[in-house]
Amino acid sequence: MTLSVPTGRAVDLRVQPVDEILDRVERSFQMSFDRDSVVRKRRSVGARTDRDTWVRIERRLLDKISPQGWNGTECAARLANISRPAWQGCVVWPDTDEAAMWRADETALLPGDPIGTAVLSEDPQLADAWWREFNASLDALAAQSTSRVATPDTEAITQDLVTGSILGAFPGGAFDTNVEQWVPAHADLNWANMTAPTFCLFDWEDWGNAPRGLDSASLWASSLAVPALADRVRRERHADFASRDGKLMTLFACSKILGPDAHPQDLRLEPARQMVEETVQDLQSD
Asked: How far apart are CA 270 and CA 263, in angstroms?
């Protein structure tokens, strides 16, 4: 199936027809979807299969696929000591009418429900055991090695991107924006990509090396509408936030909240502004 949109434009799979795409993947994997379980997002569709697995299908523009490839979920299968769904296989094909690719990855089912949307407005009341497993998985991930480069929001994270994002949002900052430590990161860590009550981290499409603290800062930013939850993230990942790179990633995360597309009613705006002031002062005094 192809979708009739101008070349190079993104497709919103929440509104576009996807039945033929699901049919194609069923034939490729020789299984059937539970059509009542279909979850549609802007650039991905997922559903449960009749063999008790989950398939996530994504469409990505060619200019959003880096030279390292587009196989994050497959490559994450080699990561040890991390709570994540086991990868089963994939199928990839080109969109014949558009400059885009389709990819379907089959994984084991999640051990629980996703905690919520990417940005939470209520405290999920997570147990201490959940936080212990969360920390163990993030620490294990950062301790491993990879040649992959993280692609948050499908854009490779580089020193130039970090510097441009921070100084573009907060010009005049008299501090060094050079990253000291690059470590493996999930690169899309938010409350929609983790389960509870059993912890599991999924959607590994964009993982790779990133500045230390990217994941912690991203989750904190997703929690700012619930102050107690944001504070808990900072306590649990204190070592990341206390590091110089973690402070840079805090500014990087805040630049997305306070950027030109900021919504005036976003409850995260004021706490983000306050954190920017504190973090800039810390960096200037280092």
From this structure: 12
Give CA 60 to chain center in angstroms: 15
Q: How far apart are CA 226 and CA 86, in angstroms?
A: 32
The Cα–Cα gap between 11 and 65 comes to: 15
Distances (CA, A) of 116 to 15, 95, 196, 222, 231: 21, 31, 10, 11, 18
Q: Which residues pair with 59 in a beta bridge?
A: 102
How far is residue 219's CA from residue 66's CA, in Å, rounded to a whole number? 24
| CA 116 – CA 119 distance, rounded (Å) | 8
Burial degree of 2 (CB within 10 A; 0-12, 13-18, 19+): middle
**Residue ranges of the chain whose pLDDT lies below 50:** 1-7
| Number of residues written out for the chain | 286
- Per-residue pLDDT, 234: 98
Residue 7, pLDDT score: 44
The end-to-end CA distance of the chain, in Å, is 55
Packed helices 244-257 and 269-285: angle between N→C axes, nearest 10 degrees: 150
- Which helix H or strand E contains 59, and what residues bound it? strand 53-61
Number of domains in the chain: 2
Looking up tokens 């070349």, which residue turns up? 7
8 falls within a domain: no
> Tokens 């973090």 correspond to what residue?
279
Residue at which a domain ends, from 108, 127, 153 = 108
* Sheet bearing 39-40, strands edge to edge: 39-40, 44-48, 53-61, 100-108, 87-94
Tokens for 123, please give them.
């405290």
CA distance 179 to 159: 7
236 and 212, same domain (yes or no): yes
Determine the Cα–Cα distance for residues 188 and 193; give it in Å rounded to an integer.
8
